[in-house]
Amino acid sequence: MAAQLVALCIDANDPPGLARFWAGVLGWETAGDPRGAVVLLPDDDTGFHIRCLPSQERKTGQNQIHFDLTSTSPDQQRETVDRVLALGGRHIDVGQRPDEGHVVLADPEGNELCVIEAGNRFLADCGFIGALSCDGTQEVGYFWSAALGWPLVWDQDQETAIRSPHGGPKITWGGPPVAPKTGRNRLHFDLAPPAHGDQQAEVDRLIGLGASRAGMGEDEAGRVAMTDPDGNEFCVLAPR
């Protein structure tokens, strides 16, 4: 049995504001959270929530994870870009070439996202969130495949991608060179132990796969902070 990806968490200086932005982009509903977060609830096969968590830290450097949003036509790509801009996003330059078909944007707190052009074959069978695109090694792709029990759907030239057997977005890693981390990742995963599973047993399993503990124990909510083989933070939640 593997862990379940419960949420993609986004550290936010203004969680309600950032949640409103992403709810408007994705068309998802929002809900409150006991941790002071605002949760976005998927209405498709995405399979995980998005949690905007309160944080006082400001963004520094490029994120290790960003959204790739898909398009079925050039008109839809333009509509998505216009919607992002109308909701408070902006165009940014991360070194993309002028001839590339995707549009690089940032949300109101500077988190990068891409609106992918129509006809992208790699994301052709995915929904609106086509992928969580990550900066990372081949090793970390293998780790997350084993951690979540998601099969590899791409493994070539040290680039990897996995996808849930139930569909939803792909998670991709671009391989070397991997940009150095600039502090704690603003986007990170929350995992739950397998159904009826034990949190400590799951932590031990993940350590056996190459993860490490990031703290001395559980926090006040019972979460265990960990890092994957590339040093990216994630949490294993307490069973409910």
From TrEMBL:
The entry's protein name is VOC family protein
Cite the Glyoxalase-like domain residue spans from the record.
Answer: 8-116, 132-237
Q: Which PANTHER family match?
A: CONSERVED PROTEIN (PTHR35908:SF1), HYPOTHETICAL FUSION PROTEIN (PTHR35908)
SUPFAM superfamilies found in the cross-reference section: Glyoxalase/Bleomycin resistance protein/Dihydroxybiphenyl dioxygenase
Pfam families under this entry? Glyoxalase_6
